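Input (TetR/AcrR family transcriptional regulator):
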Amino acid sequence: MGEPEEPGQSVRPRRKDAARNREALIAAGRELFDAGGLSPTLDNVARRAGVGVGTAYRHFANKYELADAVLADSFDAMLAEAERAAAHRDALAGLAAFFDAVLRPQAAKRALLDFLRSSPEGPLLPDVRTRVEACIERLLERGQAQGTIRAEITSTDIGVLMSLMTTLIDTYGRAAPDLWRRFVPLLLDGLRSGVPTPLPVPPLGRGEFLALVNGEGD
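Output:
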């Protein structure tokens, strides 16, 4: 008779296999959803990931649950990149990197973001918004202290500009997926200190801005 199996010896490999399968499904889902929106089925994703269909359904009840996981993974990567941008010593360079970090995945994942907008009560949005706002506040504070960003610019101004860029991506992204990149330098030039044209109306307060973003100001 062989040695008795230690408790947990077979459990750990199974857990590692399960973790690998989940990562493979998320990677395959990201690839297929980016290419074809939400049209691929969970069976399609399983085949691309090289796992059995039963394995896919043990991890995700349906493709929408997988889409949530793909978005969560993508948001983690986006937020890490945005926070690196917010730590840049040169605030204007950091703001350029921040715009790129936040807008690039929006342009690449339009179908998934449409799905997220249709389910606004998901757990992702509040944490994402809080961390993005913190990045903006850090960049504005540093840039205004450095004298490179206009003193009257507020975080809600940046939020409105981000909403405008999202609308641009939604409107033109299918036909011209990189068009948004043309307008980032224009935004940055408008935020630089020394611009001679004063802003004619005051900024939105944070509460006003959030109400409008959430559709409560109509």
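The CA atoms of residues 192 and 212 lie 26 Å apart.
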